[in-house]
């Protein structure tokens, strides 16, 4: 045995199958319940949205997406969410500017108010998605129920199962959850092989994904023109666009503490949230109704006709949506940043295609989404995954992997779009 070989650490022993098997049933239950809660909140929000943005303006004889109605509805949404944050027990959880996908375990009293604030936000039009608050609710419920029904199980397992299950349900596949968990475990000291550590979370993610697929049939493919074999021009486009997307996202990240601080000076949710609603309404008047809501349905509409808007219109939507994401997160609306960041990336990629028609829309969209998500989420694997699933072409993967390298150099070590409780940015 050589000296170098002797210095190598011994591999961690694998976990016996008899230890992993009892985790399957709890993981399946958590996966199904977490997915059903996400689907229920999403469906209720869609029904309320159809009333607020369809039935009500029609009955009043007001244009559904007129400037007057958009400003009115977003201001009213700020008032409604502000009332929940002010009066409902638990105040709808912590400041959303201080939270990410890795949710804290919240007391059960907080969860109803957080669900209500999330549903109102989704229906009212602010540019945020459901991921952060729904993960937080599922983590709180799983921890509370798990500790009572299976008190001998380690308490730390329930948040991991709930996070994996919710991410699997959000994307309709357990792959995103596996990538996210693997990335999180890379910075921790764990016992046993990687697959032993992700076994139960993968079961929960698969159960969540299958439940969402069977009930709601989610799809993220934008249906852009098919992309063939990449060439040198595609490689150059991918590197440049991903880097521009990362820089654009970092501009919002840099502004985040200042915008959050401006709303924090109002010192009350019934002031900060309506004020944020007014600003969001004015931004919607500038960017158009497609810049409202979380953005997933809206990017589908844009992708069906990538040549249907001018470069100026795409660029305006890009800037407006990014500003709306920044304002909505800063003023106190409960929501996540992934889906609106995807919208920003899609419109940025379509801007590149409109300016330089030689840029394939699939290349522009995928690499711009990658760059923006790297800056906003700082999650490399998840950013690659989301960018890839938008384009149904295996050939895009190589371009994304290469384009991620310069984009990551631009964002790594920089402030994140998440604040400490004192309002300072996390690095």
UniProtKB/TrEMBL annotation:
<feature type="transmembrane region" description="Helical">
    <location>
        <begin position="20"/>
        <end position="41"/>
    </location>
</feature>
<dbReference type="InterPro" id="IPR001807">
    <property type="entry name" value="ClC"/>
</dbReference>
<feature type="transmembrane region" description="Helical">
    <location>
        <begin position="314"/>
        <end position="333"/>
    </location>
</feature>
<keyword id="KW-0472">Membrane</keyword>
<dbReference type="InterPro" id="IPR050368">
    <property type="entry name" value="ClC-type_chloride_channel"/>
</dbReference>
<feature type="transmembrane region" description="Helical">
    <location>
        <begin position="105"/>
        <end position="123"/>
    </location>
</feature>
<keyword id="KW-0812">Transmembrane</keyword>
<feature type="transmembrane region" description="Helical">
    <location>
        <begin position="158"/>
        <end position="182"/>
    </location>
</feature>
<feature type="transmembrane region" description="Helical">
    <location>
        <begin position="235"/>
        <end position="259"/>
    </location>
</feature>
<dbReference type="InterPro" id="IPR014743">
    <property type="entry name" value="Cl-channel_core"/>
</dbReference>
<feature type="transmembrane region" description="Helical">
    <location>
        <begin position="194"/>
        <end position="215"/>
    </location>
</feature>
<feature type="transmembrane region" description="Helical">
    <location>
        <begin position="62"/>
        <end position="85"/>
    </location>
</feature>
<keyword id="KW-1133">Transmembrane helix</keyword>
<protein>
    <submittedName>
        <fullName>Ion channel protein</fullName>
    </submittedName>
</protein>
<feature type="transmembrane region" description="Helical">
    <location>
        <begin position="382"/>
        <end position="411"/>
    </location>
</feature>
<feature type="transmembrane region" description="Helical">
    <location>
        <begin position="271"/>
        <end position="294"/>
    </location>
</feature>
<dbReference type="Pfam" id="PF00654">
    <property type="entry name" value="Voltage_CLC"/>
</dbReference>
